[in-house]
Queue: 2 jobs
Job 1
Amino acid sequence: MIKRFLWLTKKDAVTAYRNYYFLIVVALALLFTLLIRFVVPEDTSVKATVFYSTNYSGELRTQLDETIGQSKDTNQNVVSVDSREEIIEKMKENTNSFGMFIKQGDSRPTIEFIFQGYENDQSRNTLIIAMKDSLSGKTAENPKIDTIVLKENISRDMNIPMNKNILPLFLVMEPAMLGFVLIVSLIFMEKEEGTIRAYVITPGKIPEYLASKITVMVVLGIISTLIGSLIVVGFNADYLSLLALVIVSGIFFSALGLILASFFENISQSIIWLIVISIILSLPTVSYFFPSFAPIYIKILPTYSMMFAIREAVFSTGNTGIITSTLITFTVLSIISYLLAIFAYNRSLLRD
Amino acid sequence: MKRILSIFKRDLQNSFRDNLLLYMIIIPIILTIGLKFFIPSTQSASSQFALNEALGNEVIEEFKKYGKVEIYSSNEEISDRVNDIDDIAGITKNEEGNFELILEGNEDYETERIPKMIINDLQGVYLDTVNFEINDIGATTPPIALYGALSIMVTAIMLGGVTTGFNIIDEKESGTIKALSVTPMTKFQFIMGKSFLGLVLPIVHVFIIVWIIGIFTPNSLLLLLMTVVSSLISLLIGFLIGVISNNQISGIANMKGIFVLLSLSVIGAMLLPLDKHIFLYWSPIYWSFMGIKDILLNDVTSTKLLINIGAILALTGIVYLSTKNKIKQGLS
């Protein structure tokens, strides 16, 4: 059985090699990571830009200037412009922005927040309260608020540069998930050639036939992971956990691809579903950038926990719980999806 | 023209046979409807708080002004919720009556700061030294709707090319491409027939997407022009995938490579600051993305339009000239 499995794996690896799978996986990993390393700036931000202007010279002017100056020092997205008109002009060019115009009110200064129009009341209220807080500088001083940290041992505020922070997304979308698309084409090629029908009349079994393909996909994933991670973070990652995560997710997504392929006769029928499912699986990217945004329909996607687990493996904070729980979940999912794939192929062969 | 239409008819029949055309038509629409439902939830993605019900209605209502509130009956339940992967701050009161903030330990700075500010405000810590005024410029399309719609539009445009590419692979595998070469049909007629579907569908999709999302642009003709111009590069890529791939398996591999490369330029256009966009100028899809974005934001000038269309045509021309012989050979 082992011998047959190894032979099948070798055959699938040769097919993958002849059809440029290895070349494409290596080229994409190199391209992605070189872009992350050398093109995407470290201080890229997905946060809104603030355009502000001051037309006020009363007694609070210095305090207001200091408050905004502090924000400007820590946030490159705070930009000074010359007038209210310019604020609006800049806001029209950048839809992810808002404006702040400081002027003289009846008896005291007035801060006019100029929003785009799509922001909800909660976001607007938060900005106002943040400005109140900055002006009074009281946040850290209120003795009547106690803070309890549940996991004292994990590092906070890792200050991961934005470009490097993209690496976990690449690792999920490419090495962890590449089997989902590539294994489907391997299967259809053999379906067209009739290899699978010929195979079932040999002593070979379906589990070995599918496992060999999954193995090739996992190997491709490991190659892509190593290239990507070594270029971006060098040896500063928990490679044991990272590879374990890539292997279990590689098995799961490849088995998912196998199940999907079992429903269709050829690649043309399945290609749109491959694209749609890939898009749905990439939705947790939004939560990755905005961790407070986690509706239930995103949380249930397997890529959600995988993204954060891979980030933990790449930029270790000591929160090993997320790696362990994701590994357990994906191991269970991999076993279930592999068994389902075997069932689906046995059934479709019987049907044929 | 008759021959072009017969090729188009055959592609149409093939596509219907595999339900491919049906999928191609409905999938971008389903994705757009999905986006439409997704938009409101991203709009409420400000902050989230897990509150102990013992805090009382006044406090709970106050927190609701700043984000999504979840109510729990015990501190243990709050701790369990805070330990989930997403960022959420737990708020309760201790035995002395002081507010207590429960954090997991890896949240961003804002998750800790915002509840503290709300509590400060509740306790009257802030002095009213400044008046606040709120206005807006009437832009009701949030970035997620704009960029989501743009991404689906670009996907729909590229899908046209993919279908053309896979139809060509199908012709090669079934040997009909050789049979066609001994008929009076010219290569131009063959190419036109194959391109028809890839040109018409994106136009229909782009306007349906705009309608569903509710982005009303007064520049419909420009949008039509930009879609047609953008479809040219998509079709060329489709032909390339078709001729360089000997079978569907290498077609998938080539498609994956080319599409990841092109989608990089879309992600780059969304994330990179303008001064770094120079790294994306090589990609015709970047120019399509920027061109359609300008039109949807009603921020289009004749110079911008000429630059965007000129860049797409020039890049398409370069790709065509450098691959012309390959395509001719592949279609022989």
Job 2
Amino acid sequence: MKDIVPDLKVEQIKRLAASGGRLDGRGLDQFRDIEIQRDVLGSAEGSARIKLGKTELIVGIKVGMGQPYSNKPDHGMLATSVELKPIAHHSFDQNITKPMSIEISRVVDRGIRESGMIDLKSLCLESGRKCWMVNLDIMVLNFDGNLIDASTIGSLVALSGTTVPASLFDLGEDFPLPIGNMPISTTFVKIGEHILIDPTGTEEAVADARLTITTDASGDMRAMQKGLSGALYYEDVTKAIEHSIKTGKNIREIIQRRD
Amino acid sequence: MDDIQLIDKKGKRKDSRGPEDLRPIKIEAGVLDNADGSAYIEWGKNKIIVGVYGPREMHQKHLQRPDKAIVQVSYSMASFSVDERKKPGQGRREHEISKIIAEALERSIISDQYPRTSIDVYIEVLEASAGTRCAGVTAASVAIADAGIPMIGMVASCAAGKINGQVVLDLDKLEDNIGDADLPVGYIPKTEEVVLLQMDGHFTPEEFDKAFVLARGACIQIQELQKEALVKKYSQEPEENGTDDNGENKDDMAEGGVLQ
């Protein structure tokens, strides 16, 4: 089912963008408000509920026992999945959302993995045989665009409060998941000639191209993903990188702020 | 089984409830932006969110009914809702629960006003701790009312059970795991109709009677919490929200159609 409303709004989006504005009153390089709730579920070893504007999701982390991948016998395992269920948007059903959820979970996973945020080596118990397995599951409750960044933020918050349940397996005391450098993703869309950060659902629906840039605390690039069929110019990319580093710093502060 | 003492001689349970006490229940209406109606319930350690879409066009034409709306329910448990991670996707248990909840809710909805449509109810269990179907159907009814769908009355639901040979209300996880019987009841207090009823375990006819009356009484109590959740939402000033233009409409319908 295709929404026609975004198509009707595209001219208005472009007109506003020409003078630096957006439908929801933000500037082009302004992120939406982030609301964070930590440790919301007793059944999970780590959890978070996140709102990015009207996009809302729950992240639950279960830590169990597994066998290391044969190509990484000395590493613990991380498995990331995103569920886009029909509760989140009237147009969501399995056929539509499956490719989308796979791409999102892979981009989120890549940022976390490539940044070395989780010390996976320390999660190996017995080379090639036994390791901790971190299952990171993201459930989207309300969709209004930019699931990659919302999922990344939610994952970071949940991971940073995760406990490894060692006592459950008679392996000593429970300990906090070893967490280091946090990767922050920021996503941009290109609509006409304009680059907008943190797109809403309507903006995503009419976007020509999408770009996600994941940066670490020192401002280095850790993962990138271009999406949709439109093209980007070199200038678009450098501009996005510049904004990504600046915005990433702010978001990192919000995530690490303990209220 | 009987060697574990779930209830002491004074009738005090492990979590210090009496035999006829409910776990704490908190219901909130209108918690999701995109869904036409929604509700969140915390019941003991259970945490469940429900979203309702519709009445909307029924896409599978062969399921359309020319005389009324179809109620479709998807009850599912999140992978992280239980101690040992559950594989994502619906299993047989979830399919069965979805079906009995759909049937319970369908009775409560005045569905002949919306022929050829479907009312889609998504029940997502975020944290499970015994009694999720009762909590789910209770929250779903609030979400349907929040969507402004006319009903003959809301369904409230609660289970009674038996532990150490004694009939008690609202089993928690431990009691459910090692208890002797469980009886979930869904009830529309306004019409005094029973719309959901299951049982497993072992009851004598006298025990069944006692358990049923206990569960029904709890449903009447829970109905008040459902109403309070709706009153709380709809007595608030509408949030300033430029894009949500059906807010007012929903208000009127919920108030006229459900709250008595």
